[in-house]
Amino acid sequence: MAKRTSIPKKVKEVLREEVGFGCPVRNCGNPYLEYHHFDPPVHIKPHNDPHGMIALCAQHHKKADGSAYTNEQLHAFKKNKVNSKYVKGNLEWLRQDMLSVVGGNLYYETPVPVQIDGHKLVSFKRDSDGYQRLSVNMLSLMPEERLIIDENSWENIGSPTDLRSPPQGKELEVRYSNGDYLYLRFFEVATAEKLKAKYAIADTSDFNFPLTVVEINFAIGGTNIDFSHSGSQVMGLNVSASVVSHCGVGFSIETGINWLQNPKWKLEQKYEIEDSNVIRVSFGK
């Protein structure tokens, strides 16, 4: 499993740009990337020299760790500018306006679709080329490592019972033994009629088509916080669906729970609760 490293942010940026912001392995292009040391491997000489490193998706990073590719192949991947153009061309759906669907709630052009106790569980940020970059910070009652993605960069994974992120990055699914779960699915909706038919929306006048929809389903084990495509449940309370446009934060709740994930390296950033419709839930304290 991938572990946190002290790779400088600038090195990550160089490696990501080098491969065109998607996994350079043929026919992949997954935009969610890790960083592989291969020339030399870190067990031979610890380093963060970008000339001997490459950005790969989680699956192909695992294969590289298992010596599936020679150093010559990995250096060729780094120089494959044709594949970089292919990757960017196939990620054009990330340039479109985005509609986040969270348990039946719809948030249009909302950079933080889900926030709990000030923690941005799922958020997006456009880069200088207009592509959306995904950040994830899973929460847990367990003092164990959980998934963290920082602007499409895999920072932490832990020990999931299942992890799936197919080529092109249009799906991301991770599940842990205690019931912590996250599933993201991206797809394009070309017309207002198709969007109305799928989500029973009456008014789509604010939307620009085609747009990218991301369905966000997640659960936090032991809390009864459960967001599915059919509805949202927070500690046994059903939350009715709504449509919100151009809001900084979409679905936000305050629970007062002492979250225990990632005990080995707590994020130093202090999360600030942004303006939003906050659901305050009492836990009988």
UniProtKB/TrEMBL annotation:
Keyword Nuclease on entry: yes
GO molecular function: endonuclease activity
Record keywords, A-Z: Endonuclease, Hydrolase, Nuclease
The protein's name in its UniProt record: HNH endonuclease signature motif containing protein
InterPro entries linked to this entry: HNH_nuc
